[in-house]
Design brief:
- This protein is 34% helix and 15% strand.
- By secondary structure, the protein is α/β, with parallel strands linked by helices.
- It has a 5-stranded mixed β-sheet, sandwiched between helices.
- Strand 4 and strand 5 form a beta hairpin.
- Helix 3 packs across helix 6 and helix 4 packs across helix 5.
- The longest helix has 18 residues.
- The N and C termini lie far apart (39 Å).
- It comes from Streptomyces pluripotens.
- GO terms for molecular function: pyrimidine-specific mismatch base pair DNA N-glycosylase activity; uracil DNA N-glycosylase activity.
- InterPro entries: MUG/TDG (IPR015637), Uracil-DNA_glycosylase-like (IPR005122), Uracil-DNA_glycosylase-like_sf (IPR036895).
- This is Double-stranded uracil-DNA glycosylase.
Length: 181
C-alpha cells in the first residue's frame, strides 16, 4: 500500500465510503463512521491499529485474516459492512448527536431493506447515541429491526484499551455462535 501523507488523509475528510452489502447477509457489521485512512483508501477499518480484521478471523467468522483491501470477500461469508454515520472524520468525537440520530434512522431503513440476520454495531457508545438506548451494554439487544436481531460489539479501534484482541474475539465469537443457531 502506498504510504499516505497527512495531506492525503486530510483531503479524505467528509468523504463517503461505499458499503459492502447485499441482501440477506448473515451479519451486517456497522462501524461508527469511516476514519480518514478508510476514506483515503476506500477500505473499511483500514487504519493499521484497528483490530477489526484480526478479531474477525480470531472469532471464526473468516478462515484467514483478510486485509482491508479484500473487504469484498466478506460477502462470500455472508458478512457485510456499513456505518452509523457515513462521513469520514479523524475521530468519532467530531460527530454530533444529530448525526448519530439521523444515522440511526438511515441504518434502520437500510436494515429493513437488506434484511440481514443480525446487525452488529461495533461500539456501544455509537449504538446508544444512534438508537437512544442509554443503558445498552455489549451483547445481544432486546428487540430488533423487523426480523433482524441486534448485537453490540466492542469498538475494534486501537484506542479502545478496555478490550484486548482476545476478549474482543471472544465477544465476536459469541455472536458467530448465535448466527449458527
Amino acid at each position: 500500500m502506498t504510504r499516505l501523507t497527512k495531506a492525503d488523509l486530510e483531503a479524505a475528510r467528509d468523504r463517503l465510503v461505499p458499503d459492502v452489502v447485499t441482501d440477506g447477509l448473515r451479519v451486517l457489521f456497522c462501524g461508527i463512521n469511516p476514519g480518514l485512512m478508510t476514506a483515503a483508501t476506500g477500505h473499511h477499518f483500514a487504519r493499521p491499529g484497528n483490530r477489526f480484521w484480526p478479531v474477525l478471523h480470531l472469532s471464526g467468522f473468516t478462515p484467514r485474516q483478510l486485509a482491508p483491501a479484500e473487504q469484498q470477500e466478506l460477502l462470500s461469508y455472508g458478512l457485510g459492512i456499513t456505518n452509523v454515520v457515513a462521513r469520514a472524520t479523524a475521530r468519532a468525537d467530531e460527530l454530533t448527536a444529530e448525526e448519530y440520530i439521523a444515522g440511526g434512522r438511515r441504518l434502520t431503513a437500510k436494515v429493513r431493506r437488506l434484511q440481514p440476520g443480525w446487525l452488529a454495531v461495533v461500539g456501544v457508545t455509537a449504538y446508544r447515541a444512534a438508537f437512544g438506548a442509554r443503558t445498552a451494554q455489549v451483547g445481544p439487544q432486546e428487540g430488533g429491526i423487523g426480523n433482524t436481531r441486534i448485537w453490540v460489539l466492542p469498538n475494534p479501534s486501537g484506542l479502545n484499551a478496555h478490550w484486548t484482541a482476545a476478549t474482543m474475539a471472544a465477544e465476536f465469537a459469541r455472536l458467530r455462535t448465535a448466527t449458527e443457531a
